[in-house]
Write a structure and sequence with these properties.
binds zinc ion; 396 residues; 2 domains; SET_dom; six-stranded mixed β-sheet; 16% strand; globular; SET_dom_sf; SET domain-containing protein; Beta-clip-like; 37% helix; 15 strands; four-stranded mixed β-sheet; alpha+beta
Length: 396
């Protein structure tokens, strides 16, 4: 599939600097739909992004794979939240709910007057019913519907662009979301993936902003979405909210050596500090995270501390009902440490959890996991064989 260049330079945008980006030399291109179920995308990106996409992904944009099985959600009114996505059947963790191309890709921080400039209008007309809309209305739609593009292939490009998606953009926010979305630049698409079991009738939610930030920070961030969050975490009474803030900060900073934990702990009372101290010192967590599973000098005691720390992290995330990318890493180490200790049942138990988390991460786990989904399948099917011999092949 080829990229059809409509116009290579947006001439009527003068080079001006906003938010660190020069608005000049834009590529304005159209990506045709790859199937009848797909949409055509119109994109406005700078040369850095354009040549990154073409240079990194030789087949850009790859056709969207067909969604597996029947559609598992409906778009319908949700109490006090306008329209939302509601599960029409039970959805398993790791299941891709939908893969979708954006209708529009636009730079974030578009200078306000330029919302009426010709290129933006051409892009905007993709949203047919909005053709005569006002600048304020356009800005409002972008503020409330656009989702930031994160480039796993080039994190320095994160959040410079946003996409408007026909259905994923209808997902409402929660600070305890049951789905995550990842931008897959090779397909110019978002994958919406369940991060926990979603029961039929439940609303499918994502996080517009980092759910691990304290409530006050989250509320400031929501202001940009013209929205006041009433999720279970945001609705807690003040004392319980402070405890939740502390635990979420602990999850966020679990093994980050740059964060001064004593500094933020000082904000909390003794009860909360006592709770935090149950998770050990920062040094002990960092030490457990840095233990090599394969070094000849690693002792069974070391493996036990990998297990202890990994389980603590997992339980902490469960208690706050949040999901992080680090969960997979922690669970993988717990399961493999059990395998190294020869504890087959525990390896299977924790390995199954790890495999589910690997599926939740999907394509962004490539290169970051020790075992692939297929290797997990074989290991969990024949744990004795894996423990006795196969491990040597995967734990290089
Ligand atoms: Zn909330």
């Amino acid at each position: 599939m080829s990229v059809l260049c409509v116009q290579t330079t947006v001439e009527n945008l003068q080079p001006i600097k906003v938010g660190g980006i020069f608005y000049q030399d834009f590529q304005f291109f159209q990506v045709p739909a790859s199937s009848p179920h797909d949409v055509e995308s119109l994109c406005m990106v700078d040369n850095v992004v354009y040549y990154h996409l073409l240079g990194t992904f030789p087949n850009f944009p790859e056709p969207i794979p067909p969604n597996r099985g029947e559609k598992c959600y409906n778009i319908q009114p949700v109490l006090n939240r306008g329209l939302g996505l509601v599960a029409s059947r039970n959805i398993e963790p790791g299941e891709i709910i939908v893969t979708e191309r954006p209708v529009l890709v636009l730079p974030v921080n578009i200078p306000f007057p330029r919302f009426r400039s010709r290129p933006i209008t051409v892009l905007w007309n993709r949203l047919s019913e909005k053709q005569s809309s006002t600048t304020d209305f356009r800005k409002g739609i972008i503020d409330t519907n656009a989702l930031g593009l994160q480039f796993f292939s080039a994190p320095e490009l994160d959040n410079r662009y946003a996409g408007i998606f026909p259905e994923i953009s209808r997902c409402n926010h929660s600070c305890t979301p049951n789905a995550i979305y990842n931008f897959d630049p090779s397909h110019l698409a978002f994958h919406l993936t369940a991060n926990k079991t979603i029961a039929q009738g439940d609303e499918i939610t994502i996080a517009y902003i980092e759910p691990l930030f304290p409530r006050t920070f989250r509320r400031t961030g929501f202001a940009g979405y013209h929205f006041f969050c009433t999720c279970p975490s945001c609705s807690l009474p003040e004392d319980k909210s402070l405890r939740s803030d502390a635990l979420r900060t602990l999850i966020h900073d679990w093994v980050d050596p740059t964060v001064d934990i004593d500094g933020w702990e000082a904000h909390y009372d003794n009860t909360i500090r006592h709770t935090i101290s149950n998770y050990g010192s920062k040094d002990s967590r960092i030490k457990a995270a840095s233990i090599s599973l394969t070094s000849p000098s690693t002792t069974p005691t070391d493996l036990r501390s990998v297990i202890h720390s990994g389980k603590q992290y997992y339980e902490l995330c469960k208690s706050e009902d949040v999901h992080t990318d680090y969960i997979y890493h922690a669970l993988e180490r717990v399961a493999l440490a059990y395998a190294l200790l020869g504890e087959e049942d525990q390896f299977q138990d924790w390995g199954r959890r790890a495999r589910i988390e690997l599926r939740v991460l999907g394509f962004i786990a490539v290169g970051k996991s020790i075992l692939t989904d297929e290797e997990w399948g074989k290991a969990l099917e024949s744990p004795t064989r894996f423990i006795d011999s196969g491990m040597k092949n995967v734990l290089k």
